[in-house]
Amino acid sequence: MAGLHVISRIAGRDGGNASKKPPPHKYWHYFFVSSLFLMLVSALALLNGYYRFVNIASYGASSLGLSPSTYLLAGYIGIFLNIFISPIPDYLLVPVYGYLCALKLFAPTNTFLVCLIAAVIPIEYVCGRYAARPLLLKALSFVHISEKRLEFAEKWIIDHGHFSIFISTFIPFFYGVACFAAGTLRMNAFYFLLASVVGFGLRYAFLEYVGYYGIYIFAASFDYSQRAAFSLLLILSIASIAAYYVRTSQFFSALNSRTAQIPKLSK
Q1: Does the pLDDT at position 204 exceed 90?
Q2: What are the angstrom distances between the C-alpha of 163 and each of 157, 178, 187, 246, 248?
């Protein structure tokens, strides 16, 4: 019992210090993965620009043996259904559709609008607004959304208002929970849709742009302004990875020092 008392005293004393070194938030890990991806892409572009091991000077649907008349994945209907109900994340789908637009299989504007409409259909909002809470919680349990997550989203919306919906469009796998919470809180439908349209509009425009022009990292030659842009992206990516490493090292160092202070219990 004395050993347990010592452990509790140490834990209590370090509890105040623990807040100074909180564990890295999960979005730090997303940030690290994104930085790693950008570092690899920029390094590939720079190396290919100098050594020219791949050269895609011109490309199109005809050169790849594809016909626009086939309308891959059922055309625009397929795009709509994929964004609306597919389990594949949209931040992977939309760049692919941007690439298909570059191949002249789809029109960029039409593709953007179809993706946007599919993303902002307020099914979750309507369910949260009009379904009884016990029934809603029971239904959410089937998709592994707990009441605790719903309450967290509700508190977040209460604290940040309509802007929280705009921010949630950029957070993977959180927008759906935020929509349910917005419905349960009876958020104004117009402002909810406006925040969703603006958020997804900016996000999808960027993702489609990446898919449309991303193929040019395999171009054997590009001007110095593009080289400077890729060089800057490489430097920022490396700096971000270094910041992630320092942050996680500090946390684990603090955790190890606290663990070392806990005495071992005798049998």
Answers
A1: yes
A2: 8, 11, 12, 31, 30
Residue 24 lies in a domain: no
C-alpha to C-alpha distance for 206 and 170, rounded to whole angstroms: 11
DSSP per-residue letters across 161-192:
TTHHHHHHTTSTTTHHHHHHHHHHTT--HHHH
Q: How many CB atoms within 10 Å of residue 253?
A: 11
Q: In angstroms, rounded to a whole number, what is the distance separating the alpha carbons of residues 165 and 193?
A: 9
9 in any annotated domain: no
| Structure confidence at residue 111 (pLDDT) | 92
What's the domain range around 243? 223-267
Coil, strand or helix at 250: helix
Report the alpha-carbon distance of residue 67 to residue 89 in Å, rounded.
26
54 touches 48 (CB < 8 A): yes
Higher-confidence residue of 192 and 61: namely 192
Q: Which residue has the tokens 């209460």?
A: 158
Q: What are phi and psi of 81, to 5 degrees?
A: -65, -35
Q: Residue holding tokens 């060089």?
A: 231
Q: Of 13-17, 107-111, 262-266, where does mean pLDDT reach its minimum?
A: 13-17
Confidence of residue 125 (pLDDT cuts 50, 70, 90): confident
Number of domains composing the chain: 2
Mean of pLDDT over the chain? 75
Q: If you average pLDDT over residues 96-102, what whole number do you get?
A: 87
Q: How far apart are CA 108 and CA 93, in angstroms?
A: 14
